[in-house]
């Protein structure tokens, strides 16, 4: 079943409340996905620096030690630990070397996200507990996406939770099921797209990455997915500057949106939006099937 929440802030005065509001929105979706949860937060980065959000494949991995070893091996960087994840901030030019070092020396450590602004935190457990463990409510930023998962296809693991990121500052969450993900996964891997799990949602994220590498805009890539992805889905996508929504042509998965002068919000259910300021006077609507919606900061 799964649940999705998303918040794109238009008024900078609301940015300090991004995590607080997104955590409250996500809390309403616990019953839709009680086995794991995840949050993608777009904060403020610095030019020339890239953040790697890393986590262990199991709880036994000492992520603080792993981050320290990585920084020592690369010769510099900053580390911030949140629960089972660590954000390692490096010079952008050092990222390929860092990724290669992790793959060779710490194969049990996964890069959850890479980007100037994006940080992804996800874990197995009840969504309210996951949000509390990562202290999501105290995070600020310009936009964010969250997901509560009820697994139907792949294992309930940290790596199998949403959001999925297969490109710099890009992520995807999904409610639904894709039937052609196995063949498309093999195709994407042959083309060099990093797909780490058997989750169909990661394939969708990788598909968008490939289409954009081949010259399409995000909007064009989302439109292409309507022809190339078999199944049913509601996608919410994050980029460094933007926030997008797409439902399949049948639109069997629930979705509702709201917009004010302060924000644009998405929820799997209307109750997800009720905690937002000014919701009583917001423009509220159900996104149309097979229609791309996208908002972007200048």
Word description of this protein:
By secondary structure, the chain is an alpha+beta fold. Helix content is 25%, strand content 33%. It is built from 7 helices and 16 strands. The strands form 3 sheets. It has a 7-stranded antiparallel sheet with strand order 7-2-8-1-14-13-15, with helices on one face. A hairpin with a 2-residue loop joins strand 9 and strand 10 (170-178). It is globular.
Compute the number of helices: 7
Query: CATH fold name of the largest domain, please?
Result: Glutamine Phosphoribosylpyrophosphate, subunit 1, domain 1
Per the principal axes of the C-alpha atoms, what is the gross shape? globular
Content-based structural category? alpha+beta
Specify Rg, calculated over alpha carbons.
18 Å
Summarize the biggest pleated sheet.
7 strands, antiparallel
Content of β-strand: 25-35%
Highlighted features:
25% helix; Alpha-Beta Plaits; Glutamine Phosphoribosylpyrophosphate, subunit 1, domain 1; seven-stranded antiparallel β-sheet; alpha+beta; 7 helices; 298 residues; five-stranded antiparallel β-sheet
Précis, in short:
The chain is 25% helix and 33% strand.
Secondary structure layout plus pairing:
Layout: E1 3-9, H1 18-27, E2 36-42, E3 49-56, H2 63-74, E4 78-82, E5 85-91, H3 95-105, E6 109-115, E7 118-124, H4 127-133, E8 143-149, E9 164-167, E10 170-178, H5 181-190, H6 200-213, H7 218-228, E11 231-238, E12 242-247, E13 256-259, E14 263-267, E15 283-285, E16 293-296
Antiparallel strand pairs: 1-8, 1-14, 2-7, 2-8, 3-5, 3-6, 4-5, 9-10, 10-11, 11-12, 12-16, 13-14, 13-15
């Amino acid at each position: 079943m799964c649940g999705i929440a998303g918040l794109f802030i238009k008024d900078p005065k609301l940015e300090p409340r991004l995590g607080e509001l997104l955590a409250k929105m996500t809390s309403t979706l616990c019953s839709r996905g009680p086995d794991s949860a995840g949050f993608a937060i777009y904060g403020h980065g610095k030019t020339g620096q890239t953040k790697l959000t890393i986590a262990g494949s199991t709880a036994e991995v000492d992520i603080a030690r792993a981050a320290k070893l990585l920084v020592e091996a690369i010769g510099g960087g900053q580390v911030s630990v949140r629960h089972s994840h660590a954000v390692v901030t490096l010079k952008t030019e050092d990222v390929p070397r860092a990724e290669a070092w992790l793959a060779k020396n710490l194969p049990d450590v996964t890069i959850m996200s890479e980007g100037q602004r994006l940080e992804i935190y996800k874990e197995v457990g009840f969504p309210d507990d996951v949000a509390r463990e990562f202290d999501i409510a105290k995070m600020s930023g310009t936009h964010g996406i969250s997901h509560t998962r009820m697994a139907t296809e792949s294992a309930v693991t940290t790596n199998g939770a949403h959001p999925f990121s297969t490109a710099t500052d890009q992520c995807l969450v999904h409610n639904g099921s894709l039937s052609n993900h196995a063949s498309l996964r093999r195709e994407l891997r042959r083309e060099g797209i990093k797909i780490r799990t058997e989750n169909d949602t990661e394939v969708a994220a990788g598909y968008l990455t490939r289409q954009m590498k081949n010259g399409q805009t995000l909007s064009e890539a989302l439109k292409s997915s309507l022809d190339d992805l078999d199944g049913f889905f509601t996608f919410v996508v994050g980029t460094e500057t933007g926030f997008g929504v797409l439902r399949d042509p049948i639109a069997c998965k629930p979705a509702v949106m709201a917009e004010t002068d302060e924000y644009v919000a998405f929820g799997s259910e209307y109750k997800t939006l009720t905690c937002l300021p000014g919701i009583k006077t917001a423009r509220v609507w159900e996104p149309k099937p097979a229609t791309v919606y996208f908002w972007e900061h200048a």
